[in-house]
Write the structure tokens for this entry.
Amino acid sequence: MKIPELLAPAGNLEKLKMALLYGADAVYMGGKAFGLRAFSDNFEEHELKQGIAFAHSLSKKAYITINIFPHNDDLAALPDYIRAVAAMGADAIIVSDLGVFRIARQVAPALPIHISTQANSTNWSTVQFWQELGAARVVLARELSLADIRLIREKAAVELEAFVHGAMCMSYSGRCLISNYLTGRDANRGQCAQPCRWKYHVMEESRPGVYLPVVEDERGTYIFNSKDLCLITHLPELIDSGLDSFKIEGRMKSVHYVATVIKVYREAIDAYVSAGGTFHLKQEWLEELQKVSHREYTTGFYFNKTTEQDQIYTSSSYLQTHDFIGLVKEYDPATGRAVVEQRNNMKVGEKIEIMQPGRENFVQTIRAMFDAEGHAIDVAPHPQQIITMPVDKPVVPYAMLRRPEAKRGSE
């Protein structure tokens, strides 16, 4: 049985470390230029080098996104950037554009190239084309069914990657002009304003200024607002399809999101493999995926053409059942206390859940907290405040504290 790579998003160095520690085999990340997530934190060049080195220290991989559709003025700095990424030891770059592909081949011929989903590879002939050009991997278009993927696998020898979880763009494989037209921010050059999540009404031509709701609801409608992709229940079919890499979307999502989703898919893949190909879906995996910020879930294009049921018309809000409130920095086994960096208001007496890489979650009550000077406190209200607290079980660095019954919010 071929075990697919689990590929995680890394919007910054902390998210990269969390993703790898919680079970990802590889991460994809972008620098300050040439990627399609200009408004995520992204990496300075020295941070890219640190991230790649951290991945390699765990015998894992790091891929760098260079997947904008560049205009002429974008090309001047591109060769030196590609050379720098290659010198850092990146395991591959992810590109969308033939011009970028050509330059990369010229200036860093040994650097593997992955073809981005933005290249819209929807058929086996296109995949064969990239294979013949020397691409190491093709990230398939999101509009493909599982049957399409199986056929492409039969026809092509190049590695195949596909998204299995995360936000879905309403435009074709993420190539979108709505942001350009409405805000002047080019989605295809990393500046998407996500106008597909805005509220819309229709205005009839002969009645200017009269705004008609698309659905009879005074709140309007979110007609472009896709549900999020989630394929955890279909893991056996995905593995059997021959995919080489399962990609999680979310470079702009929180560390809580990245760690939780990666841990669930890691456990599910490992359980399937250890059971010799028998899959038992655990309810706790489904519950975990409800704890992070998300929209309602869909299986996207994998099993049928999408319909109106795959869109959300009533709200652009996210759902979640838990809030991320703290990150463990250290643990002292002699005292049973953890040093925690606060990420949300925490109070003594609250019931919390502690999640950590490679171990089962556990629930406890915050019995006491102490500030950096050792004084007992009842509440930790300050952003990233360092506190010490007793924990019921041993914990490891990067364990996460979260509080149930969260209000709706966004990550």
Summary: The two ends are 36 Å apart (CA to CA). The first helix runs from residue 13 to 21. The first strand starts at residue 5 and ends at 9. The CA atoms of residues 227 and 296 lie 5 Å apart.
